Amino acid sequence: MAKIKYKKDDIVLVKSRAGDVIPSIHVRLLEREVVSPRKGNRIDWPGYSGWMATPIYQKEIEILKKEWSIPLTKVNKDPPIHVRLLEREIRPPSKGNKFDWPGYSGWTATPIYQKEIEILRKEWSIPLKKANKDLTFVYDDDIIKKIT
User: Fold this and answer.
1) Residue span of the structural domain in which 133 resides
2) Is 71 buried (19+), middle (13-18) or exposed (0-12) by CB count in 10 A?
3) Cα–Cα distance between 75 and 113 in angstroms, integer?
């Protein structure tokens, strides 16, 4: 069987890794993820690859939510919000007792616009309250673009 080459913004039908009983849904491919194999403390972690994707049909989301308690709520990606980056944070990979933890990098940040906070609270149940007061963490990969 020939391997199909997918690209960003392709719409594909995907099945759940949890089993064939959960219905397949249509998604838009957003970004390719490739993770290399890693040496662990007790086990070696295999590499893997896949796609970040977003559902495209609200009806399919509603079926997954109602019948399978899968917490998808809206078509497309989470809404972007404007934040002020406050402090850079870099954590190198570390060895744990049972797991090896991958490193990460990002920023402590605060949302700028109260209107965006209201949308996040209403639509996504995200517990932010005050613009320029509440703190959150933003991974480097989640930053879309610099505004000012």
Assistant:
1) 83-142
2) exposed
3) 23
Q: What is the pLDDT of residues 82-129, one digit of tens each?
A: 888 888 888 888 887 777 778 888 899 999 989 888 887 877 677 889
One domain for residues 88 and 126: yes
Whether 58 and 96 share a structural domain? no
Q: CA-to-CA distance for 105 and 90, rounded, in angstroms? A: 4
> 1-15, 19-33, 102-116 — which is least confidently predicted?
1-15
The answer as to whether 33 is a domain residue is yes
Contact present, 55 and 75 (Cβ < 8 Å): yes
Sequence-ordered strand ranges (E) for 8-97: 11-14, 25-35, 48-55, 83-91, 94-95
* 89 and 64 together in one domain: no
Tens of pLDDT, residue by residue over 48-61, are 788 878 888 888 88
Report the candidate in 91, 90, 79, 88 with the shortest Cα–Cα distance to residue 128: 79
